[in-house]
Amino acid sequence: MHSSWDSLLEGLQEIKASQAHMEDAIEDMKGQLQSDYSYMTQCLQEERYRYERLEEQLNDLTELHQNEMTNLKQELASMEEKVAYQSYERARDIQEAVESCLTRITKLELQQQQQQVVQLEGVENANARALLGKLINVILALMAVLLVFVSTLANFITPLMKTRARVAATVLLTLLLFVLWKQWDFVEPWLLPS
């Protein structure tokens, strides 16, 4: 009976030692878990702080981009107004120049008619009078054709000068045609093969 009692005591001591060992292991695990929890909490706080900073930067950049787009739109509208105003001014100046030319031609016609009357009175030959009248009419007709040509050319050029892009395209096309004309001997075999 005594030996079973000793073995029972010995078993209890082993269980007690095992329990103490388990308690130490649990305390170690608690400490490790607490350390891991603190580390994870700190990492999460750092990530949250970094996320908030990135979100603020993104919002600032978005606002800056929107402001720049608004400024660019305003500048484009201002430039468009300037170009439209300048083209209107140019068209008005051309129209005034054409009207001035018409007025001068009318005055010249009146002066030539008066001179024709004066000269025709002095000219005794009827054939010379008719020839002089026809010559004056031809000159007046040529002046009228020249005026129509200038007016048509002005009306043709005005739409090509309304924007910078049209001015640039017109200049480039003119330069290209000029270069082709100057280099026609070189370009002709390519365009018109024999």
Give a short synopsis of this structure:
With 194 residues, this protein is mostly helical.
Low-confidence stretches: none
- Taken in chain order, the helices and strands follow as HHHH
CA-based gyration radius: 50 Å
Q: What is the structural class?
A: mainly alpha
Strand content: under 5%
Describe the biggest sheet? none
Helix content: over 70%
Can you count the beta strands? 0
Based on Cα principal axes, name the global outline. rod-shaped
The overall average pLDDT, rounded, is: 85
How many distinct helices? 4
Task: Report how far the terminal alpha carbons are from each other.
Answer: 133 Å
General description of the model:
With 194 residues, the protein is mainly α. It has a domain at 1-134. The chain contains four helices and no strands. It has helices spanning 2-122, 126-160, 164-182, 184-191. Helix 1 packs antiparallel against helix 2. It is rod-shaped. The mean pLDDT is 85. Keywords: Coiled coil, Membrane, Transmembrane, Transmembrane helix. One of its GO terms (biological process) is amyloid precursor protein metabolic process. InterPro entries: TEX28/TMCC (IPR019394). Belongs to the TEX28 family. Residues 44-82 form a coiled coil.
